Amino acid sequence: MAKDGEIDFFTTRFEDVINFARKNSLFPLPFGTSCCGIELMSTLASGYDMARFGAEVVRFSPRQSDLLIVAGIVNLKMAPVLRNIYDQMADPKWVISMGACASSGGIFNVYSVTQGIDTVVPVDVYVPGCPPSPEGLLNALLRLEDRIAKGDTYSQRRERAQSPLLGGSK
Amino acid sequence: MSNSKFQNDLPLDIARWAQPGRLDISLRKDTDDLFEDSKMLVNIGPTHPAMHGAFRCMAKLNGETIEKSYCEFGYTHRGKEKLGENRTYHQFVVYTDRLNYCSALINNVTYAMSVERLMGIEVPERAIWIRMMCAELARVTDHLICVGINAVDLGAFSFFLYGYEQREKAYSLIEKLCGARLTTSYTRIGGLMADAPVGWEKELKEWVKETRTVVEEMDKLLTDNRIWLNRTKDVAVFNKEQCLQYSFTGPNARAAGVNVDLRRDQPCMYYDQMDFDVPIAQVGDVFDRYYVRMEEIKQSLNIIVQCADRIKPGPIWADDKRTRIPDKDVVYNTMEGLIHHFKFFMTGFNVPKGEAYTAFEAANGELGFYISSQGGPTAHRMRIRGPSFWHYQGLDPMIKGGYLADLVAALGSINVIAGELDR
Amino acid sequence: MDIRHPVPTIYGYFQEKYGAIWIEEIGKLKESFGDAIENVLMPVESPVDIPTLFIKKAKAHELLNLLKNNYHYSFLTDYTATDEMGVDTTSADAPRFNLVIHLMNLENKARIRIKVRLHEGEAFETLIPIWAGANWAEREIFDMFGIQFDGHPDLRRIIMDMRWEGHPLRKDYPLRGYQVFLTPEPLDPELLK
Asked: Which residues of chain C does A84 touch, with a Cβ-Cβ cutoff of 8 Å?
């Protein structure tokens, strides 16, 4: 830390190392509700392996995971449940909105569907497709890793805003 | 600390505890229970680790026994029946794949068949053969995923991966056919989206040969396995009478002895010329449902080979002017083609007034479309009879008195797909 | 090998197999029920694919029991409703809802359709004593259309959230009528007593 409080060399390098560790060991929580869930399963299986990017350990409990992959439709009945799950996760947490239905309601602009989960949780990466090809999801994962490395995701911005060490206000 | 209220020498009924499956509901009163009504409520909530979809099952447990349960769904309701009233018949094809998304081609085929029946369109031969091959291919993939997930829930993980490899190859085949892996939207009303590429049938036949050996291996893994038999024999029994009361169809009903298969009994496309058997079991427990599905995979592979042998080149569109989407060179070069294309996609074609219920033997059971039309371009009522709806209702009586672990086995064996359940 | 079938008449694809059986059975039913059967639509003559009987609400149970036990239409394939608002413009007091019941005969695999016309607010007696599977079907009809069922042990919403207002599949409910909830659906411990 420099004399006038700005972030100095040592903190920056440390942050890089931490981000490197975080991005290469994501623990996904597959929130698979419908068709995209099947493609998510395909991505986790051996054909298009997600384990080679570090995201092998799939944890179904929000307390034990940090990446929420919302794959499939999120209803108005399911939206509060999704918010609950998101709130139960510990910081830092990231959200991938997989598929057209999760990103924007998809082809279903009807009475019972949220038009996009970004009305419920803050989303870091959107994956288009109905359902997205497993390669698309892997692309999204790599993009998320890039953004984690840069420190550009909602969760990290929140961290910086709230932590005095990293130059925040709290 | 000895409390006189406790009986220290309760007879340990080992024989009863060691039997899998049902206990009597009339349990003797548990005198160790200090709190009379302290039965545990377990909520197997909407975020399901078993990857079946999003539905909820609440069970009231007495120890490990389920005394009462109630099942709830609706977390993936997408309003397809209301959408059917607001989209033209052609636009609705896209929504039909998302019904039973593990076997999307069957839904497409059923929907196209139901609208064609309302309009009196006769589809040419080649389209029918391709539709039949697609339906059986989709059926095989659905059954592989169903028994796979059932095994994963009960701990047999590698069984699932054997079948998964074949599913990935089937996805590549489907991708060659229509461009999409999962949600295909392949059939059109009056024909198909595009012809099968040259040599597709040969690749399909090779896939069938591979799948036959893989299914044999899978069979050897589980069918005589003592652990599997202990987990699934006489678990969640649903006998023939209950199946008929709860309107079970498909492999769940055939596992209990109901001898109905719509491919054989109400043959629609060219199924009456196909040579296949229909496996029927007697008991109706989880093992029977698993075994009926494994046998059905083998029969479907036979049907695919027979279709692939008989298919000949030919047109894939019916000659009907109402539903035939004009070819691109006609659209771009003639005025009539342009106007026809415009009217087709903007307003849709009118289906004459009437109603019909068309049912087909989907992978799960009887998938039916009851379409009531008032003569316009959109349906007046598009009712989708999804088999999973009726099957999920039977889960409650099936697991009453069973263990909590049997609930997981039963849920996996009924093959509830959330897309069909909630529509 | 000429495998091309002759072009079927629209709606006539079961006529060959079951035509005679249907005519006989419907004739007998018409005799026993007389006036209670408001209308019968037979395939090919009218635009339906299986015989469709319109029956008055009061005699519906009798007819269904008779069909299940004597005529062997013992399998309830589908149980749903349709909203006919604005279709019948002839009479001002036309019933709004049609309850539609599809039955299947498991021996010869014939099908039949029974329709019961209900006004808005009119309740129908539950079919659970005849088929236990009608339980959830009736809950779904209540949820989507608002038709009440007398004698149903547990008539509450099944697909929509329990706090939802309105019945989505009615014609006057908008396609995009969203209703947002901020808390998950509450658990009702009464249901497990």
From this structure: 184
pLDDT at B214 over 90: yes
Q: In the prediction, which pLDDT does B1 show?
A: 38
Minimal CA separation from A170 to chain C, in Å: 28
Mutate to test the interface with A, among C140, C161, C173 (most CBs of A within 10 A): C161
Rounded average pLDDT over C154-171? 87
Contact B78 A112 (CB under 8 A): yes
Q: Which residue has the tokens 């005519």?
A: C23
Domains of chain B in start order, with CATH, are: 80-414 (1.10.645.10)
Question: Across the interface, do B383 and C144 touch by the CB < 8 Å criterion?
Answer: no
Cis peptide leading into residue A62 (ω within 30°) = no
Question: Percent helix, strand, coil in chain B (nearest 5)?
Answer: 50, 10, 40
Chain C residues at the A interface, defined by Cβ less than 8 Å, are 160-161, 168, 173-185
3-state DSSP helix/strand/coil % of chain C, to nearest 5: 25, 20, 50
Fold of A9-162: Rossmann fold (3.40.50)
Q: What tokens does B338 get?
A: 């342009």
Instruction: Give the homologous superfamily in CATH for domain C15-192.
Output: NADH:ubiquinone oxidoreductase Nqo5 subunit (3.30.460.80)
State ipTM. Answer: 0.90
Beta-carbon separation of A38 and B182 below 8 A: yes
Structure tokens of B14?
Answer: 């080992």
Q: Are B411 and B52 within 8 A, CB to CB?
A: yes
**Which of A79, A84, A109 is nearest residue C176 as measured by Cβ atoms?**
A109
B348-388 pLDDT, tens per residue? 888 888 888 999 999 999 999 999 988 889 999 999 999 99
pLDDT tens, B18-65? 334 444 444 444 444 444 566 777 888 777 765 577 778 888 888 888
Task: Report the predicted TM-score, pTM, of the whole model to 2 decimal places.
Answer: 0.88
Overall average pLDDT of the B218-222 stretch: 89
Domain residue ranges of chain C, discontinuous segments joined by + = 15-192
